[in-house]
Amino acid sequence: MVLKLWISRVQHQKTCIILLSSLNTSTSVFSSRGSAKGLPIEMKPITNNEIKKDGNLSIDSRFNQTLKSVQGLLSGKSFPGRVLLSRRTETRVESSQVGSTAAERSDGDNDVATDSSDSGNYIKVEVPGPVTVEPSQERPNSSVNQAPDLPPRSTGSTILRLSSGGRATDSARIAKFRKELSAPVVDLDSLRELAWSGVPSDMRPLVWRLLLGYAPPNSDRREVALMRKRLEYVDCVAQYYDISNTDKAEDELHTLRQISVDCPRTVPDVAFFHQPVIQACLERILYIWAIRHPASGYVQGINDLATPFLVVFLSEYMEGEMEDWLVSKLTPAKLSNVEADCYWCLSKLLDNIQDHYTFAQPGIQRLVFKLKELVRRIDEPVAKHIERQGLEFLQFAFRWFNCLLIREIPFLLVTRLWDTYLAEGDKFPDFLVYACASFLLTWTEQLQKLDFQEMVLFLQHLPTRRWTHQELEMVLSRAFMWRVMFDRAPSHLNCN
């Protein structure tokens, strides 16, 4: 039996939805519950008496056979919440997704609301709170612009859907963040768990500072600590940047020239970053970082990594859409605070991956090797096709690891992606490998039809321009599932 599993994390209820399909259309349903701390899940079969009559109830043998297969696959594994398997009578099961566009919700507010529709084609199984499973219409074949098993956006067909009443659950979720952030001492483990699935936009600046260790979890010390670090950055600017060029060493001048060339190229399709004030901020941040980190110095790509921090910390002072922000209207004091926060948070991020940017960039080469091995384990046909065509993973994945996928997706999705990155903490480099594998295998069918030259062009210009949170959440969900599976079976992925 060939099994196909998809997993989706649903923020409110810490719920995992797993849809199972098999080539012989055998069906099974079970529900299980595990704690958010990762305790082993307990699976409970759903009896035939709980199954809605749909004219085809003779599934006992197939039920038991498939259930045993799934139990064997998931044995000993932990998921942060409840697991649900659903079946449908068709031969193909579509992937679960949260059906809302970016225009219908803010970054990080990816919550599921109740939808009352139901049908005999699905078995609805003891699901907490707002989650419900409903049938979807058969969709036409996906184009290369769609992630696997995602219906075209124009149809509006989804398995899990945000209803107009979703604000109630949004409020509950936001209340959890407020409760954590208002504590005298923030529980960083709980905050990471909440942030993994997205952070509300207005709370993101504080959450990111806490997750990176820039702001202390103790609220009484936070304001003083931030003020001290911001003043320290101002001193660094005066000491290293504001001095005359005649007082700078030749290698420092070379670094400054390289940065001044790269800054105008940063996120070229977003006009906001072309503002002179932003260009100047970015140049100072990158130059100070390079001078204070001589082991690596400035490397192309680090300029991209500063951009999410600029946007997030500016959002504390700006209103409306990012494209409409006029940063020149900010007071010098506020702009200095934003710039300092960007610098220190960028430094915290890079401390965990600094060997990505030292000579020969060994950290990136190591992760590319892991990616190649992981893809071979997950999707051997794709791995063999890439190898037969003579395409090296380093040729396309180097940029992914160097810029942390920033250049591969619409910039408006980057902050949501980074919520998960920062929530991973010290485990972020390993998770990045799974995220890149999930990203690549979004186009598994298309890749196997391309020759070397076509693959190179395709991977350099991936069809992600119209992506919304739906596609990004699918990438992160698959990465999470694979990481859980391989963490419990290390012998299957020996990449160290």
TrEMBL record:
Residues 88-163 are annotated as: Disordered. SMART domains: TBC. Residues 134-146 have a biased composition (Polar residues). Residues 198-425 form the Rab-GAP TBC domain. GO terms for molecular function: GTPase activator activity. The keyword Cell inner membrane does not apply. Pfam families: RabGAP-TBC. It comes from the Eukaryota. Keywords: GTPase activation. InterPro entries: Rab-GAP-TBC_dom, Rab-GAP_TBC_sf. This is Rab-GAP TBC domain-containing protein.
